[in-house]
Here is the input.
Amino acid sequence: MISSFSEPAVEVAEAAPILELINVSKRFGSGLEALAAVDLRVGRGEFLSLLGPSGCGKSTLLRIVAGLTPPSAGDCRLAIDRASGRLGFVFQDPTLMPWSTVIANVLLPFRIARRRGAEPRDKAAAAIRAVGLAGFEDSYPHQLSGGMRMRVSIARALVTEPDLLLLDEPFAALDEITRLQLNDDLLRLWERYRPTIVFVTHSVFESVYLSTRIAVMTARPGRIAADLTIDLAQPRSRATRLSPDYAAMCERVSATLAQAMGTP
Amino acid sequence: MNRVWLRVIAPLAVGALFLALWQAAARLSGVPVYILPAPSDIAGSLWVDGPSLLGSLLVTLRITLAALAAAAIIGGLIALVFSLSRVIEISFFPYAVILQVTPIVAIAPLIIIWVHTPFLALLTCAWIVAFFPIVSNTTVGLNSADRNLLALFKLYGASRGQVLWFLRVPTALPYFLAGLRISGGLALIGAVVAEFVAGTGGAETGLAYRILEAGYRLAIPRLFAALFLLSVTGIAIYLVLDFISRRVLRRWHESVTAEGEE
Ligand SMILES: Nc1ncnc2c1ncn2[C@@H]1O[C@H](COP(=O)(O)OP(=O)(O)OP(=O)(O)O)[C@@H](O)[C@H]1O
Ligand SMILES: [Mg+2]
Here is the structure.
């Protein structure tokens, strides 16, 4: 998928954008203007966080990228084919089919693509293992904890080995312990599979810990107020959270966010 | 465990107490049997007339089950069509409601005139009463698919057929089964009402006609015996449908799985 792990993210972005938003705006039928002139380039292999106040249009932006809703104006260019499983989406809720087992849920993208047989099953089993749920293949969602359900959701998004992974506040509903654990797990998965990730969050700490880059958005109508490269050492781990660099970066991002929200 | 016993014993105790009071009241007050028979009179009648009443029950039961099956199949298909086309749903749903709210006693005479085969006429009446809960429940169910799951299906390029079979139909299943449980009781009521209106009709007489006949002849214990059989049948239909519903949903649906966690 991606080879140039050692290069700084920004240079990669300039070399080969996988996603390019040009002047994208969105006005809903109700007349509400959710996004105003968003420009954003995301390079292959980046881990980009979208950080912004509630209601600023982060989910709307992700839905536009995923092709679930059209932009009112502007251009959303993707270097990949959306429908072929090159794009994965994780919602805030696990969004599992309660009548299906874990493995059947993870197999859904293949089932829709009419791919059957041993190969999809192997991939699904591998994805379930990768999120640490080996042994739960035949469980039903109601038998799992909230964190485990979220892992199933991530496994389903990863199973097609997407080039671009969109996550919309995937851990917002989880407790702190589970959330930190899943943060680390997500980083390990990113290092291993190297998809490009666009991650929506409210949390400054989470975004700094995870990302190579943070796009800070203004309150509605949302636009990109600041674009920050997070050059903390890779790979990130629990030690990162204790480093002075991390604290300083959080401080800076917080200040930028406050500025973007107009509350200095 | 205690709770289960309580659930069985408590209602039975109430029933036994009620029967005992009834027996005492009927015997002590001296009200004639043709006005208020004692439970023992009814039991006697059940013993004597039982075989012939059971034959009539079978006639009514056949109509009920056929109407229920037709309601499940046709009602399910109507809901499916409604879910595929919003225009069709909007255009036809009001007529389903009209059919539902018009008292079946009022339309039964017409149906009996129009449909010449007695069995089919009675079946039609029972079906009209039974099909609506299935249509309305299943329609709601088919339209209740999770918004995000719908988005996910769209993202992976699912066809309309795939969205229907993999997502909408499983979502609708619990709704359909809830509708079916309501329709089971309604089908029996519909069959009985239709038999009342049709009178003896064909060669075979259903339980409802036996009730009418017993009333005319002041054979009140037999009337009660028939009534008793009718109630037992209604309860049995409900229990069977409830059992089927639990079997089908047992692995995943909250209505069933929550109980196992107590
Ligand atoms: N389908 C819709 N029709 C009309 N308005 C909408 C629709 N979807 C979202 N909005 C509005 O657009 C604005 C942005 O919504 P969006 O969900 O993108 O915000 P968000 O940044 O994801 O917020 P949060 O962080 O709370 O999830 C909100 O004011 C919302 O009310
Ligand atoms: Mg959102």
